[in-house]
Amino acid sequence: MRFSDLLVAAATATAYTMNSQVRLAYHGDNGMMVSWNTFDVVKNPSVQWGLSRDRLDKIATSDVSVTYPTSQTYNNHVLISGLRPDTTYFYKPLQLMNSTTDVFNFTTSREAGDNTPFSVAVVVDLGTMGSKGLTTSAGTGVASTNILQPGEKNTIDSLEANIDNFDFLWHAGDIAYADYWLKEEIHGFLPNTTIQGGAAVYESILNEFYDEMMPITARKPYMVGPGNHEANCDNAGTTDKVHNITYDSSICMMGQTNFTGFKNHFRMPSDVSGGTGNFWYSFDHGMVHFIQLDTETDLGHGFIGPDQTGGSEGFTGVDPVNATMNAQTNWLEADLAAVDRSKTPWVVVAGHRAFYLSNTGDTCPTCKDVFEPLLLKYNVDLVLSGHSHIYERLAPIADGKIDPNELENPSSPWYITNGAAGHYDGLDSLDSPRQPYSRFGLDTSNATYGWSRLTFHNCTHLTHDFVASNNNTVLDSATLFKARTCDQDRRRH
Ligand SMILES: [Fe+2]
C-alpha cells in the first residue's frame, strides 16, 4: 500500500468513527427514529430497512438534516413507521460518512399490556470516556479515587458487554459533559485553547461521546432527557484559580447555549405523547409506562427552572422550552390520568434532579413541589434521578414521610438516585449523616462506577440492581412488591 493510500484509509476510518453516531429512539407504538450525523447536509436522509439482513427492501426518508453554529456535523433524523411490536428489523442509514456496508438491527417496543419480563438499563451523569474525559489520569485537583485504574472497564464498556440483557438505555440527563472542556483545560488535562477555540473542543467531546456510545445506541433505543450539562458551555461557571479568573455563560459561543446541541441531536417521542421536544415525553413498553421529566426548565407555577436564565445555576441564555403556562405539569397530569394500569401496571418516572437525597444540596426542592403531588395522586411506582454523583437507594416516600410498608406494597413512590455512571473527575461524597430515608449508598469512597438495571418480572415485582461497571457484579439489589392482580391472559413468551 502506498503512503497516500494509507492516509486515505486512515481518514476514512476517522470520518466513520467520528461522525456517524448512529442512534435509535422508540417513537410511538409502531415507529423507530433513526438518527445519525454527517459532515455535510443531507438533502433527503434515508434508511434502508427490512426483516432480513439480506433483504433491506424498504426505504424511509425525511428532510431533516439540521445543524447549528459551531457544530462540526449535521444531525439527520428519519422515522421508520408501520412497524410491528417486539419485532427485530435490520437497517442501514444510506449517507454515513464512509461507504460502510454495516447493517444494524433493532427490536421494536413491546406492546402495552405484553406481560413478558424484561430489563432496562438506566444511566444519569454519563460522560465521555478516554482521552477527553474519564480515563486512567486526570488533571490537577482530581481525587485519585476518581480516575480509572489501568485496565478498568468503564460504564460504556459494561453497557456494551451487557447489551443483550436490556431492551433500551435510558439516560436522564448530563450527557457527555462537553461543557467540562474549560475545566479540563484549566486542570491541565487538555491542552489550552482560546475561548473562541473552545467551541471546537466542546464539539469534539460531544462527537467523541456519541461515537463511543454507538455500539449501544445503534442497536438499542437510546431515550434521553435534559441535564444541566446540556444547557451551556461553561459548566455553571469555571474558575481558573492560578489566574484568578471565573468564567460564566457569557463566554459561550453561538450554538453553545440554550440546550442547542441537545435539541438538534435527538428526536424523542414527544410529538406522539403530547410532550415537548427532548425535554418531557412518555412511552409504553410492555407492562410499563415510562415518563421522562424536565427538572431543568419549565417547572411552571412561578418557579424558574434551575438552568433557566435567573435560575439557581447562574446560566444566561437559557429559555423555557414551552411558552404555555404550566405546560409541563399540565401535560404530566393528563399523561398520568390517561395511563391504563390494566395494561401498564408499572409507572416509572425519571428526572435529572432528585427530590430527596442525603446530599440535600443536590436536590431540587421546587421540582418536588411541582411534581410530587401528581406522582402521589397517580400512584407512580418508581422515581429515578441523578445529578449528584453518588448512588443512593431510598425508601418509598410521600411528602417527606417514609412509607411504613417500605418495599412491601408501599402506597408512595420509591426513589433511587444513581449519578455514578462516570465522567471526567468522577464521583462525589455522600453527605453524612445520611437522611433517615436512605437505605443504601455508594460514593467516591467506594470508587465504583455503575449503572442501574430495572427488571420487570411481572405486574407485582420490580427489581433494581446497581451494576458495577468494572466487573458487572451487582453491588446492590432491591425488589419492590406491589399487591395487584396481574392479567394472566396477556401475552407471554
Ligand atoms: Fe447534573
Would you give an account of this structure?
This is Purple acid phosphatase. It catalyses: a phosphate monoester + H2O = an alcohol + phosphate. Keywords: Glycoprotein, Hydrolase, Signal. Pfam families: Metallophos, Metallophos_C, Pur_ac_phosph_N. Its EC number is 3.1.3.2. The N terminus is likely disordered. The chain folds into two domains: 87 residues, Immunoglobulin-like; 371 residues, Metallo-dependent phosphatases (Purple Acid Phosphatase, chain A, domain 2, 4-Layer Sandwich). Strand 16 and strand 17 form a beta hairpin. It is α+β, with helices and mostly antiparallel strands and 493 residues long. The protein is globular, with a radius of gyration of 22 Å. The chain has seven helices and 26 strands. Helix 6 runs parallel beside helix 7. Strands 16, 17, 18, 19, 20, 21, 22 and 23 form an eight-stranded mixed beta sheet that branches. 52% of the residues are buried. The structure holds fe (ii) ion. The site of fe (ii) ion has 7 residues, from loops.
Q: What name is given to the CATH topology of the largest domain?
A: Purple Acid Phosphatase, chain A, domain 2
Main sheet makeup: 8 strands, mixed
Spell out which ligands are present. fe (ii) ion
Give the total of domains.
Answer: 2
Distance between the termini: 53 Å
- Assign a percent range to the helix content: 10-25%
Poorly predicted regions are 1-16
